């Protein structure tokens, strides 16, 4: 069996695939693998662009560990089986009047896969998914089943563990009362958005923008949280299909194909895209606003920088693209997050801004990504663990103050490297 990730940048041919349905079955799968001298790798939805989910030995498919296990209505906490997909969560939480605090751009990932790589959305007062986690159940290499909550010394390692510490079987999430979002999407001059970025990104609940290279327009998105009782003003079915399906997927896929054949056309196409999209306002339940469907495959690199560095980093990437004469069809995406205390979180200890660059799946991404990474490196950037980068453990020792503590946790929980693969060896040593 050959496994491929969504971005078609990684593949694997595991020796066997096991589909456990309980923590005990996970422990048995680990013991069997060790007996046969094989490594173990749980996979989620395969939406990481890096080789973090590549399983050479035993691939653990967690599709039978799915669903809502318990609800504490008073604390507004829910325990989800680790293989639950984020798109399944709204329907599971709705009967309890609850929702996830914040989400990224899509909801195809599993809860365990998303937290293990530090998946995040945007919002100056909001952290990534791992910050919403209050406890996990982890099966270690020795087959121990550990319940790890805030009182446990390894809590801030286990919430974002790169799949290197063991197999998560369930995750308890701090939810919030279900809410709506008022979304305003508008094209604005890029120069002004960068000039005012610190204020613009700090004031609203959720602010982000896209910028198509070769244009001077930023497509801003500003989402304001509202009570669930506020009236909805949803996009009409046709408008939603036109914007989110036809323009963002069907037309965009044609455009990427044209851009690949005729790169000289890309600047004009990007200018047209900036004029035709991103001008609308609507109010809807949070999950319908946070996430969209991405059907055009691409590769992505995303770096976390101190938020103050974002405007200059974007300007520098603009200058780099012009200097190199590249034609880039995919936009940059810029987001923010609150500081947190999770050891391998890209937002550890600092108010964070994220810049993501993308390339169409049929184009070579390496030259562009390597050069952009040099820009991020000069700003002390930390790469997203699930998105393409070229850094290794030597870099991370200086970028993460608690890196050595994480390595010590790994030595303790997986001394024989049962959960290792080539990516983890590169980034953790
Ligand atoms: C189209 C697209 C949009 C994206 N948007 C965003 C975004 O908005 N924000 C963002 O931050 N990221 C985003 N990402 C990146 C994505 O969220 C992460 O790469 C995420 O890890 C993918 O989750 P997954 O379920 O596919 O996990 P996988 O990629 O399958 O696995 C990721 C890691 O989790 C580990 N893992 C999985 N299950 C378990 C388990 N039970 N126990 C222990 N470890 C486990 C795997 O071993 C692996 O190390 C996007 C990716 C794509 C393709």
UniProtKB/TrEMBL annotation:
Which keywords belong to this entry? Oxidoreductase
Domain FAD-binding PCMH-type, residue spans? 10-178
Keyword Oxidoreductase included in the entry's annotation: yes
> Would I find Oxidoreductase among this entry's keywords?
yes
**Per the UniProt record, which residue ranges are transmembrane?**
none
- Read off the PANTHER family from this record: D-ARABINONO-1,4-LACTONE OXIDASE, L-GULONOLACTONE OXIDASE
Stated name of the protein: D-arabinono-1,4-lactone oxidase
Give the organism, scientific name: Hamadaea flava
Origin organism lineage: Bacteria, Bacillati, Actinomycetota, Actinomycetes, Micromonosporales
């Amino acid at each position: 069996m050959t496994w491929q990730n969504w971005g078609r940048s990684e593949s694997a041919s595991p020796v066997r695939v096991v589909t456990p349905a309980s923590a005990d079955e996970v422990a048995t799968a680990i013991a069997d693998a060790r007996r046969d001298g094989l490594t173990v790798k749980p996979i989620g939805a395969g939406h990481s662009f890096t080789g973090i989910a590549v399983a050479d030995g035993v691939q653990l498919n967690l599709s039978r560990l799915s669903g809502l296990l318990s609800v504490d209505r008073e604390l507004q906490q829910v325990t989800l089986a680790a293989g639950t997909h984020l798109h399944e969560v709204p329907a599971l939480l709705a009967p309890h009047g609850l929702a996830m605090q914040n989400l990224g751009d899509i909801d195809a990932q599993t809860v365990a896969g998303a937290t293990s790589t530090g998946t995040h959305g945007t919002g100056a007062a909001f952290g990534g998914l791992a910050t919403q986690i209050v406890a996990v159940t982890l099966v270690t290499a020795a087959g121990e089943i550990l319940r790890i909550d805030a009182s446990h010394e390894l809590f801030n390692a286990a919430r974002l563990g790169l799949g290197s510490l063991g197999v998560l079987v369930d995750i308890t999430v701090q939810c919030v009362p279900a809410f709506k979002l008022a979304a305003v999407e508008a094209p604005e001059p890029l120069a002004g958005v960068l000039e005012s970025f610190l204020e613009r990104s700090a004031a609203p609940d959720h602010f982000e923008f896209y910028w198509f290279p070769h244009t001077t327009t930023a497509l801003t998105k500003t989402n304001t949280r509202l009570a669930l009782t506020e009236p909805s003003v949803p996009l009409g079915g046709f408008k939603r299909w036109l914007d989110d399906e036809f323009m963002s997927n069907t037309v965009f896929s044609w455009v990427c194909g044209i851009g690949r054949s005729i790169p000289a056309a890309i600047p004009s196409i990007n200018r047209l895209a900036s004029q035709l999209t991103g001008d609308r306002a609507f109010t809807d339940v949070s999950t319908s606003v946070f996430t969209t469907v991405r059907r055009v495959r691409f590769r992505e690199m995303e770096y976390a920088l101190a938020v103050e560095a974002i405007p200059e980093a974007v300007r520098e990437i603009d200058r780099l693209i012009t200097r190199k004469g590249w034609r880039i069809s995919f936009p940059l995406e810029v987001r923010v997050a609150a500081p947190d205390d999770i050891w391998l979180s890209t937002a550890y200890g600092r108010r964070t801004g994220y810049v993501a660059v993308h390339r169409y799946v049929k184009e070579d991404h390496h030259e562009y990504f390597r050069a952009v990474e040099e820009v991020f490196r000069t700003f002390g950037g930390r790469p997203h663990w699930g998105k393409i980068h070229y850094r290794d453990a030597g870099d991370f020792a200086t970028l993460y103050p608690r890196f050595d503590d994480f390595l010590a946790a790994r030595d303790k929980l997986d001394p024989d490297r049962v959960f290792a693969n080539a990516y983890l060896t590169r980034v953790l040593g």
